[in-house]
Amino acid sequence: MTYLPGSALDDGPLGRLLMAARQLSHEPPLLRRGGQVTEISPAACRVRGLSRFAALGDCVEIGEGTTRHLAQVVHVGARGILVKPFEAEPDIRLGQQAWHQGAFRLHPDEAWKGRIVNALGEPADGAGPLPPGLVALPVDRPPPRALRRQPITQPMRTGVRAVDIFTPICAGQRMGIFAGSGVGKSTFLAMLTRAADFDTVIFALIGERGREVREFVEETLDEKQRRNAIGVVATGDESPMMRRLALKTAITIAEYFRDRGENVLLVADSITRYAHACRDILLAAGEAPVARGYPPGIFAELPRLLERAGPGEVGGGSITGFFSVLVDGDDHNDPVADSIRGILDGHIVLDREIAEQGRYPAMNVLASVSRLARRAWTPEQEKLVLMLRALIARFEDTRDLRLLGGYRPGTDEELDRAVQWVPSIYEVLRQTPDETEHRNAFETLSETLKALAAEREDGTTTHTPQPPQRAPMSR
Ligand SMILES: Nc1ncnc2c1ncn2[C@@H]1O[C@H](COP(=O)(O)OP(=O)(O)O)[C@@H](O)[C@H]1O
Ligand SMILES: [Mg+2]
């Protein structure tokens, strides 16, 4: 029997009805259609007898009893279907029975909060069984209808000062984090999961090392947050099928909570590893690699999937998404990075050079854009940020000149101000992973700017004030 959550309702008639409904929605169907495994290769297995019933993306179960393996249809042909098992090394034999199961469905529930699941929605945290919810949601679903979606208007604070000042976001916005390896993407996303403005946080860790997953869960999420967060994890040693499914599972769970009217934060690390998994699967299904080894199917799948994040239909909640993108060898024109940049509502670029200076988060504020920032800023904030960007641009442009001793104070007023202000602005943006900003980031910024302005009036330009001490974060 399936595990059922203990609740006050369990003993009453309503509880028994609920129990029966849950039971029914998880019973296997009475009629099963079967086929036979006729070919096995490392890439996929061929099954004969299901070609007329199975659709792309449907699941089949291979084998009986204790040695059952779940697999998904990746190609349908007249000579049979190709299925790819979710397990990395399944023990499948020629002639075994394969049973058609239809689309893969999840049964998310409120009680999943605080838990970590694998791509199939099974518990992955060793904390006991997961109560299945009442509704069965297929993981492949179309996005909400464009014209029925709510407009994006509600500003959200993330608690990361660099984001809240330079690329502020609204509920339902989708952002990409672009950086090379080791520049701080995972840490940046972990900081974002603390954003207090959201009802539920769903984080998908795709293709990460097992150690990183542990660190992410144990070190980044505090007790309170863990109760509102659900993790979906597919580590690098799992099959590409699991890694691809993990992102879909995370989005499906996010949709479940969005449809309950919640503002959901979805954080996915990384889309690149998801794309790699798609590539492996599509190549196994016979698609040709066209764009630097990527089959064209990926460029159709990515927008379809990312479009599912965003504002819900009128009356529902929203899914705000942050997706990390690995730019190989810091090459920002990688086809996956390029395609994702076009789909999202903004991008944050983390720079290796900034990280090497020890300035974390290593966000390049000049290269980062939030397309909805104007809806999140007040007019005064917008004016201030534009002014600061100009100063930072001036500061960075003249870095070499100043290093070579070509800068003399007093000859260029704007440059003087850039030299005086920018280091302090950078100090405001500096933030360690365990420091949570509880205030509005603009308050911290304006205190620093006031101190700078006062100093300017005094005429003392040699000393750079430190930003005001912030309250230590409570964990
Ligand atoms: N906000 C930060 N404060 C201090 N150090 C950081 C910060 N962000 C990243 N780092 C440093 O950068 C290293 C790599 O970060 P990580 O998030 O694992 O990068 P990526 O996911 O891009 O490979 C971390 O181990 C840490 O030392
Ligand atoms: Mg990482």
Radius of gyration: 25 Å
Bound molecules: adenosine-5'-diphosphate, magnesium ion
Question: Which overall shape is indicated by the principal axes computed on the Cα atoms?
Answer: elongated
Beta content:
15-25%
Low-confidence spans: pLDDT under 50, at least 5 residues?
1-9, 461-475
- How many angstroms separate the termini? 39 Å
State the helicity in percent bands. 25-40%
The tally of strands reads: 19
- Helix and strand content put the structural class at alpha/beta
Main beta sheet: 9 strands, mixed
Molecular structure report:
With 475 residues, this protein is α/β, with parallel strands linked by helices. 35% of the residues lie in helices and 19% in strands. Strands 8, 12, 13, 14, 15, 16, 17, 18 and 19 form a nine-stranded mixed β-sheet that branches. Strands 1-2-5-4-3-6 form a six-stranded antiparallel barrel. Strands 7-9 form a two-stranded antiparallel sheet. Helix 14 (413-429) runs antiparallel to helix 15. The longest helix is centred in the middle third of the chain and has 19 residues, at 240-258. The chain is elongated and about 85 Å long.
Q: What's the arrangement of secondary structure elements?
A:
Blueprint: H1 13-26, E1 34-40, E2 45-48, E3 58-62, E4 69-77, E5 80-85, E6 97-103, E7 105-106, E8 116-117, E9 137-138, E10 155-156, H2 161-166, E11 169-170, E12 174-179, H3 185-192, E13 200-206, H4 210-220, H5 223-228, E14 229-234, H6 240-258, E15 263-269, H7 271-284, H8 297-306, E16 310-311, E17 318-326, H9 335-343, E18 346-349, H10 352-356, E19 369-370, H11 373-376, H12 379-397, H13 399-403, H14 413-429, H15 441-458
Parallel strand pairs: 8-14, 12-17, 12-18, 13-14, 13-15, 15-17
Antiparallel strand pairs: 1-2, 1-6, 2-5, 3-4, 3-6, 4-5, 7-9, 10-11, 16-17, 18-19
Residues 185-186, 269 line the site of magnesium ion (MG).
